[in-house]
Amino acid sequence: MIEIQFSWVEWFGFVTALVYLYFSINQRIWLWPMGILSSAFYIAVFFDARLYADMVLQVYYLVVSILGWIMWRRRQVEEHASKIQINKLDKNMTLKLLLSFGVLYVVLAYVLIEVPPWVGIASSDLPYWDAFTTAASFVATWMLAKKLIDQWLIWIVVDFVSMGMYIYKGLYVTAILFFVYTIMAIWGYLSWWRDYKQYEHSLT
After folding, report:
1. 127-153, pLDDT tens digit by residue?
2. From CA 9, how far away is CA 7, in angstroms rounded?
3. Contact 114, 52 (CB under 8 A)
4. Whole-angstrom Cα distance, residue 131 to residue 128?
5. pLDDT at 203 (0 to 100)
6. Which of 28, 82, 155, 171 has its CA 20 to 30 A from that of 75?
7. CA distance 12 to 166
8. Number of Cα atoms under 13 Å in the Cβ half of residue 116
9. Environment class of 159 (CB within 10 Å of its CB; exposed 0-12, middle 13-18, buried 19+)
10. What are phi and psi for residue 87, nearest 5 degrees?
């Protein structure tokens, strides 16, 4: 039987994550401080739910949010604009990111299966899916810091798979959040694509 879990921590994580997503779609630098807050709340949520890879991912999000804030601010100054230019993956970077994802996935899956018994905590309930979403999210978050439009395609897959995981774990507030994330990731891609094509057109 699935236990329904609601907590103020999860609700605050939910709200700050939605604000983060709004700023992300609209290419506003304030997405990064919202990312810091959201990650802090979800570190606690995922530890309690025994989704350890997701918890570690939130720590990574927190660190990348600080770095992304610095990187976007620096580019704003360099480009003299409130919205920095959107970039797109090339073939060389795509191969590097695929390799990075593969390595991360194998390492995370191994850690999730083997490490918990060593340190005396309960094993991850969904190690392979947890490793998949975590590895893909590591890559996509780095791409967001670089403002690569292709990151939205990864988020569509990650958010949809994550939604299923959270339903299974009884984290229904978070599952609703990731349903919204899946829809908004599609919107984000289309919004960024429109701006990207407008910039390309301005160069011709």
Report:
1. 899 889 989 988 998 898 888 999 999
2. 5
3. no
4. 5
5. 59
6. 155
7. 17
8. 17
9. buried
10. -115, 165
Quick one: how many helices (H) and strands (E) in the chain? 7, 0
- Quickly state the pLDDT bin for 3 (edges 50, 70, 90): very low
In the chain, what's the furthest Cα-to-Cα distance? 61
Q: Which two tokens stand for residue 88?
A: 């797109």
Tens-place pLDDT, residues 39-78: 888 888 888 877 776 787 788 888 888 888 888 888 878 7
Q: How many residues does the chain have?
A: 204
User: For residues 40 and 63, what is the distance between their CA atoms, to the nearest angstrom?
Assistant: 11
Measuring CA to CA, which residue among 150, 136, 69, 127 is closest to residue 103? 136
User: Which amino acid would we find at residue 70?
Assistant: I
3-class secondary structure, 5 = coil
What's the rounded Cα separation, in Å, for the pair 147 and 20? 15
Which tokens in the block code for residue 33?
């401080």
